[in-house]
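debug: dumping io for the single-chain case to check the tokenizer round-trip. Nothing else runs in this session.
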Amino acid sequence: MDLGLSDKTVLVTGASRGIGAAAARMFAAEGADVVVCYHRNRAGAEQTTAAVAGYKRRSWLLTFDVGDAAAVALAMEELKSQVTGIDAAVLCAGTNAIAPLGELRAADWDEVLRVNLSGTFYVLQAVAPLLRDNGSIVTVASVAAHTGAAHHAHYAAAKAGIVNLAKSAARALAPRVRVNCVAPGLTETEMGLQAIGSQANDYLQKKLLAQRMATADEIARSIVFLASPAASFMYGATLDINGGRDLR
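debug: decoded output
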């Protein structure tokens, strides 16, 4: 199936690792050029750009803190001097901190909301004017947006906000730009493994029909589809990719 991404330009935040890196590679495999956005992990970002180059596609490295509105605005101004426009943006940057609700520190609450929810909003708002007509934005939430999470309530709250931010942005930007969301379940990334810890086997057996974690590539496939012209009639949707979590 041709997703219609050949010679398109796609921006991906959080592209130095995990789902963001997998999505960046997959866009390049589909023939797109990729703006690789990262904050601290330059080595990981350079690995992603090398992977993009392996598909004979162009890439640009862009470093900024998604949770800093001024830094986001400056980065988008810098990007304007490098590309003539963007066809799709994937907002994948995120962070987490594990703690029971009663022990959750205000500083951790603030940081997770700042990066995950505010960061998604800041980039969405700043990148929207750069998108060409018929462009698309994909935000990345989590199954925790629907289920809550006893040991990372701040993360679940932020991700629930991202689901509804996508709906609001879809209303605001349609029909010129489509905005949709993915809500991954437990995924084999650094953050996913940290979140599940020693309870992995019990959780997988009892909670997931798939009885395993997702790979980053499995989540990335849905992101690439939503970002592509193949999903041209999807606005404000959230794709739940959770291995049957809701059916247990």
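debug: round-trip ok. The longest strand covers residues 131-140.
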